[in-house]
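Title: Prediction job returns without error message
Component: structure pipeline
Severity: low
Priority: P3
Assignee: unassigned

Description:
Job completed but the reporter wants confirmation the result is attached to the right record. Sequence as submitted:
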Amino acid sequence: MSIRLVIEPAFSLAYQRYAGFAPGETLRLYARTSGPGTGGLFYAIEKDEYMAEDAIFEVEGLRFVIRPSDFWFFDGGTLRYNPLYGEYGFSFFNPRLEE
């Protein structure tokens, strides 16, 4: 199964700037639930290794990987960075999740 995800170059570069990740590193994207009682989901990122079944996106020197169990959350989405908000300018939007 393939996954359609747009990771804008500014998103990758901002993670390198604000989170200290370096070109060549692998970052795992995954869906995470928010606090008790909220019922919300959001994306999370952590440094990791890729596995053979992962979807892989190479953007501005970083390798972003997603496990098949999280494809449903990211498929059709876009990860962006807005420099007006500095280290808080990261966003994820997926119109398929709004249906």
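Comment from assignee: result matches the submitted record. The mean pLDDT is 90.
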